[in-house]
Structure formats: C-alpha cells, structure tokens
Amino acid sequence: MFNQNNPPVHDGRHTALFQSAGHINIPQAFDTDFAQAMATGLESHRHYKMAAFINNQVLNLSASQWQALSSQQRSEIQKLMHNNAAQGIGYCYGRSTLADAGAQTAVFKQFSEWLNGPQVLDWVKQLSGHTDICAASLQASCFEPGHFLTRHNDVHATEERRVAYVANFSRAWHPDWGGLLQFYSNHGQPQESWAPFFNSLNLFDVTRVHSVTYVTPFAQQSRYAFSGWFRATAL
C-alpha cells in the first residue's frame, strides 16, 4: 500500500495488464491513515465549482454564483446541459484545482507531492511504457446526484497527457448509485466498468474512451476523488 513515505514498487503483473488492456485498477492502494486523511480533506472542502460543458463552452460556477442565478436561469442551464448530454456531449460535476482550494490546500498539496515524487513518476513510466512522463496534474472532483461525464478520451496535444489516474476516496459507495468509470471500445461498445470503491486507484491510457456514469438520485453520499494526468510537459 502506498503513502508519502511508501512509494509504489514495480510489479511486472501490473505492467503486463496495463500494456495489454490499457488500464489497471488497484484496490486498497493507499494505507488506511493516508486514505482516511484524503477522504476527510475532500469531504470538508468548500471550494468545489460546478463544472459543465454547454454549447461548446466551459462553465465553472461557484456555489454562490449558482445560487445567485434565478430559478429560470438555472433551469435553462440544466436544459441545455441535458440536451447536449443526450447527444453524448458534456459533463456536470463539482471540481476544484489546487489553485482554487484557497486555505484548504493541505490534502491537495500532499497528494500532488506524492504524485510528482520521482519514485511514483518512475513507476508510472515503467507501468505504461511512456518514458517521457515528467509531471502529474491534479484536481478534486465531487459527483453528486444528477452529475455525469459523457463518453470521451483524455488526449490533449498541448499538455501531452499520457496516463490518466483516478484515486477514489468515497467511504462506502454502492455500485447501484452509478458514478462508475465505464470503458468503451472506439465504436462505443461498453466494456469494463469500475465502481469508485474507497481507496482504489485507477490508471488508464489517455486514448481509452471512457465516461463516468450518471449518479442516481438515491445515492447516499457524494463521489469524491482526486484525478488528473501523468504528462510529458511540466506543470
């Protein structure tokens, strides 16, 4: 199990699986104290913005900005968002970067430092075969009932992304609540899916088509995670 003092050790089985399937799921990835600290930090965070994609525009609204809108304005945004999603375009979820975190940066910095440690970067290079990886970005996500992320890949020419990661810190997630990391063939055929079980680490090649499935109205908690990309350009 990993933490800031216990970096991952190269495992040939993980490498073989990643390089054959393009993705790998590691359960119980971090030691208990580290995972609990990350979960507490994500749960107590107060600076998530509503991230959405509407009519080819990125929308990032703080809670106060969203509340300041009239009910008609909020309804119109949701209608546009759902119309786009029906065509397989867009997303809606809570998001926060290290820059957005304000005073609540401790767990963000701790996890970012772990990601960007030389031993972790070397591990991901060996795992993926992408030897040009030099840094890892980070964002926190909070998916609540009604949130989703439609089918896409994570290729980004400017950032030169190589490997995506999702570190899951929802304490007791039930797969019937949705929020699954769902993989697809390039033709849209559903393939493997992973529930965001507590303390699991997902890694996948950025060319893999994937989504986060709709979080149901009866989900009993938010879906918390750190996610981002191991990349070949500096942050």
Automatic annotation (TrEMBL):
Cellular compartments per GO CC: cytoplasm
**Where does the Prolyl 3,4-dihydroxylase TPA1/OFD1 N-terminal domain start and stop, copy by copy?**
138-231
Which InterPro entries is this protein grouped with?
Answer: TPA1/OFD1_N (IPR039558), uS12_prolyl_hydroxylase (IPR051842)
Under the heading Gene3D superfamilies, the entry gives: q2cbj1_9rhob like domain (2.60.120.620)
Q: Which GO terms describe its biological process?
A: regulation of translational termination
GO MF annotation list:
peptidyl-proline dioxygenase activity
Q: What is this protein called?
A: 2OG-Fe(II) oxygenase
Q: Which organism is it from?
A: Salinimonas marina
